[in-house]
Amino acid sequence: MSLPQRTQVLIVGGGPAGSSSATFLAQAGVDVMVIDRAHFPRSKPCAEYLSPEASRVLHAMGALQAVEDAGAAQLTGMRVRAPNGFEIEGAFAAEHGFRGFRDRGLALRREILDGLLLDRARAAGATVHEGVTLEALDAEPRGYAVRLRHDGVEHDLHADLVIGADGLRSRVARALGVARRSRWPRRLALVAHWRGVAGIGARGEMHVQRDGYLGLADVGGGLTNVALVVPARLAKGAAGNADGYVRDWLARYPHLAARFEHAERMSPVRATGPFASHATRAWAPDAALVGDAADFFDPFTGEGIYAALRGGEMVAPYVLEALRAPTAKASAHALRAYDRERVRTFAGKWRVEKLIGLAVSFPALMNHAARVLSRRTDLADLLIGVTGDFVPAREVLRPGVLWRMLVPPARS
Ligand SMILES: Cc1cc2nc3c(=O)[nH]c(=O)nc-3n(C[C@H](O)[C@H](O)[C@H](O)COP(=O)(O)OP(=O)(O)OC[C@H]3O[C@@H](n4cnc5c(N)ncnc54)[C@H](O)[C@@H]3O)c2cc1C
Description:
Elements: E1 6-12, H1 16-27, E2 32-36, E3 49-50, H2 54-61, H3 64-69, E4 73-75, E5 77-81, E6 87-91, E7 105-107, H4 110-124, E8 127-130, E9 132-139, E10 144-150, E11 153-164, H5 171-176, E12 179-181, E13 187-195, E14 203-209, E15 212-218, E16 223-231, H6 242-251, H7 254-257, E17 264-265, E18 270-272, E19 277-279, E20 283-284, E21 287-289, E22 295-296, H8 304-324, H9 328-361, H10 363-373, H11 377-387, H12 394-397, H13 399-406
The protein binds flavin-adenine dinucleotide (FAD).
The site of flavin-adenine dinucleotide has 41 residues, from helix 1, strand 2, strand 3, strand 9 and strand 13.
């Protein structure tokens, strides 16, 4: 494989954020080069659920049909079980007056999804180089001198603009001096695919316990994604024995253990974490961050893929403007505007994520909220709609709504 000496836009990372950015930019006629240190298909520890609104971006990328044809499971809503056994059940198609692009979420193994999205970027005109790692970035008067490594050999090129879509612990964010690790929550995840888990239906499930939470979802092909997330301080026993750790955890909860009695694990247990991190800003001169490289909080609300896809769609017009800008100052102005739009778009959602993260960290709060919401399907639907990215976050952040989520309805 021969690598070029220069490119207009270098995208580091070929996950959902990189593929989305590449597709929208290539569709606009930009010379785009994507690199990823991995060879695809590659695995990625993830619960693999895509919110209903993610389908809108997939459609805009021209990838939705391929994702559905690949056998993605269709999810109709979510079920959250609190430690006290109360359940919050919310549907994507509900009476609150908001509709998603689709009434269903999708779930598909990342080995399949990410390869499909990268193929879509290729079809749109981007050049994709797998097995190529970003080693260093040095700012030039306009653009960057970039050092790559491929098959142990270093390669230098010039990029007019760099997009960091390289996920958690982003090399690009660190090189730009904007990376920040969040102190809370510090959690680790252990993820695998199983076959034969009993009772898996069309709703994604979250089971919250005092020592972590478990996500279960159909991901198509008869497989269930099983994602256990535990506080980092409790995860010491997981090192070197991830499978045993997950089985011991399940065995502690009879309602879950019974469902795994005849189940078989079909893939290695992959560990990842801690994940909470955010960049102080998602831009620098001639550079932008998208997806987890810009921020990630916690997998509980499961919308990292949507944020990555939407981020790529959002950044593209600003990158176009930056590339056309006659001066470095005008280019910086365009990229700063991207960051402002990002914050405007996601800030409400970040608040909701933090509130949910708080409830997950404090079981008494989760128990209380579940007791109330198990009797308020209207509020449960609204909350699930927010996590599904089609109900604006402000709908649940109104003081009156928050109050109703905490105060049990009067018995009729
Ligand atoms: C346990 C867990 C469960 C989750 N469940 C869900 C869920 O159900 N739904 C959901 O929407 N989100 C979920 N998420 C979040 C989701 O996985 C991420 O938000 C999403 O993958 C972000 O996409 P991305 O493209 O930004 O990063 P990634 O998918 O991580 O892609 C980054 C790419 O960059 C490449 N890369 C990294 N460094 C370099 C380098 N130096 N040079 C070249 N290439 C590099 C990597 O190889 C990788 O392919 C979950 C996360 C975790 C941890």
